[in-house]
Amino acid sequence: MSSVTVRVPAKVNVQLSVGPLREDGYHDLVNVFHAVSIFDEVVAKESEAITVRVNGKWSDQVPVDDSNLAIRAARALAKHAGRTYGADLVINKDIPVAGGMAGGSADAAGALVACNELWGLGLPLEDLMEIAGDLGSDVPFSLIGGTAVGTGRGEQLSELPTGGTFHWVFAPAIGGLSTASVYAECDRLRQASGAEVPWPQLNDSLMEALGTGDAYALGSNLSNDLQAAALTLRPELGPTLDAGRQHGALGAIVSGSGPTCAFLAIDATHARDLAESLTATGAARTAVAAHGPVQGAVLI
Ligand SMILES: C[C@](O)(CO)[C@H](O)COP(=O)(O)OP(=O)(O)OC[C@H]1O[C@@H](n2ccc(N)nc2=O)[C@H](O)[C@@H]1O
Ligand SMILES: Nc1ncnc2c1ncn2[C@@H]1O[C@H](COP(=O)(O)OP(=O)(O)OP(=O)(O)O)[C@@H](O)[C@H]1O
């Protein structure tokens, strides 16, 4: 095979409950991931060495050196296979960078699936999931997509059946937020408040809303323990969330570590109208309608 293309979705977290800080610097989570129809594409071609290029609207913000998550993924796969392999990777980027939508994780997952195929390794998903977990807490979910509960760092996944399609609007912000800084700010706020941090629990009403496809119930049960930290670091997100609610969003939330804001709409038409209102009123610079759940990294 001389060229392989993989499409990988972005995610939003419909519940992100963050437990106490662990000794290894991570937090135990109850993390309900939901894959949405904003995609990066990873194209892998035969080559001597592992290299990466990035196209698309966010390309200038993505490193093309060894820190690129797609390169790290391809290297980890080659190491797992015990051989030296090359791949010329091209990322066509549509997922906001450092936006809380797991863009880098999507590219890592895309590179794993693409190189597994390009190099004819035939590794099962189980092996790819293990390599993915070592690359980052969100990478295993990017492989499977759909809707899933992540525990541990977020890498231990159980898939969740959903009762329908949900319609969303995403408003990326100018500039990103570092995931580690948002978790650190969350710890700082908690320490300052002095309150005990409870062990994270799955929200049963949220599970029911997902299972029945009830967008109204999902909207009123969205939660993100990182939101207060993201809003402290980026106070201008508060008015954007408020504007979405005023325009009829069923729920408005910071996506993961932010700063992208996510709005749940009633249906596809409402999502289009909401996106238009948010940009027309200047509440958001750009806003994109999308739906979920969608499948994870897939060969096309
Ligand atoms: C915010 C989320 O996107 C929600 O899905 C994820 O929890 C972050 O996942 P990710 O970007 O894949 O993060 P990683 O690359 O694994 O970790 C980056 C940094 O985030 C913090 N981190 C991440 C995951 C976790 N469960 N606890 C943490 O405290 C740690 O400081 C870590 O050094
Ligand atoms: N392929 C990649 N795409 C995007 N960013 C990458 C990539 N590889 C490395 N990075 C680096 O990772 C940082 C985080 O980018 P990413 O888009 O994954 O953030 P995020 O969506 O907030 O992540 P998450 O939601 O998983 O916490 C970027 O600032 C960038 O320097």
TrEMBL record:
Keyword Metal-binding: no
Name of the featured protein: 4-diphosphocytidyl-2-C-methyl-D-erythritol kinase
Keywords, alphabetical: ATP-binding, Isoprene biosynthesis, Kinase, Nucleotide-binding, Transferase
GO biological process, alphabetically ordered: isopentenyl diphosphate biosynthetic process, methylerythritol 4-phosphate pathway; terpenoid biosynthetic process
Species lineage: Bacteria, Bacillati, Actinomycetota, Actinomycetes, Streptosporangiales
Entry's family note: Belongs to the GHMP kinase family. IspE subfamily.
EC numbers, comma separated: 2.7.1.148
Entry-linked SUPFAM superfamilies: GHMP Kinase, C-terminal domain, Ribosomal protein S5 domain 2-like
Entry's Gene Ontology molecular function annotations: 4-(cytidine 5'-diphospho)-2-C-methyl-D-erythritol kinase activity; ATP binding
Residues given in the record as ATP binding sites: P96, V97, A98, G99, G100, M101, A102, G103, G104, S105, A106
Function: Catalyzes the phosphorylation of the position 2 hydroxy group of 4-diphosphocytidyl-2C-methyl-D-erythritol.
Reaction(s) catalysed (UniProt annotation): 4-CDP-2-C-methyl-D-erythritol + ATP = 4-CDP-2-C-methyl-D-erythritol 2-phosphate + ADP + H(+)
InterPro entries associated with the record: GHMP_kinase_C_dom (IPR013750), GHMP_kinase_C_sf (IPR036554), GHMP_kinase_N_dom (IPR006204), IspE (IPR004424), Ribosomal_Su5_D2-typ_SF (IPR020568), Ribsml_uS5_D2-typ_fold_subgr (IPR014721)
Domain of life of the source: Bacteria
Domain GHMP kinase N-terminal: 68-146
Involved pathway(s): Isoprenoid biosynthesis; isopentenyl diphosphate biosynthesis via DXP pathway; isopentenyl diphosphate from 1-deoxy-D-xylulose 5-phosphate: step 3/6
